[in-house]
Design goal:
two-stranded antiparallel sheet; mainly alpha; 4 strands; 10 helices; 225 residues
Amino acid sequence: MISPWDRWYSTSCCLCCHVRTGTIILGIWYMLINAVVLLILLSALNDPVQYRYHLTSSELGTDIDVMDDANICIATAISLLMILICGMATYGAYKQHAAWIIPFFCYQIFDFALNTLVAISVVVYPNTVQDYLQQLPGTFPYKEDIMSTNNMCLIFAVLLFIGCILSFKAYLIGCVWNCYRYVSGRGTTEVLVYVTTNDTTVLLPPYEEAVAIPPKEPPPQYMEA
């Protein structure tokens, strides 16, 4: 009987790429995104007046500093950690080191769980969508049109959007998991072949001893009567 893990196992992704190639591309893509975020955060630290965002008193009644130095430092540390994790996954897929792929796979699981909790919160607390829209700044495009939409239609659109994101993330998780299985299985096969070869070499006698021809006994001496 085929297990569910083996049933969904495949060495190809996106209909044409190998799972190793797909994992490498995915790791590089995540590294580029986090590098851009890191550059923006570092620019905000160097010039906080330009990048700092203030909500006006007409919107919330108070002047709230959304991006302070502490939040920027935390976001910078998270971006550096993400670049490290994505780099490890890229290196592990390229050099076929399965252990290096595990941190990136754990991050994908954590990100998928967070998005799932967001979808559950929208279903359990439907008013959170309207509360979130009210917190948006007045300059947000089409804010009034979105808020005037029927609440059920708005919730359905949000759930459909989150569902598409979750499906895509689940597919990427499967690709990375298949890459991990492929790399770990390939390494196990190489170790078994190596051990078997060594055992065979140890157990087999030397070639010279195996093919050596035993010496013939001298013929008996001829004795005259």
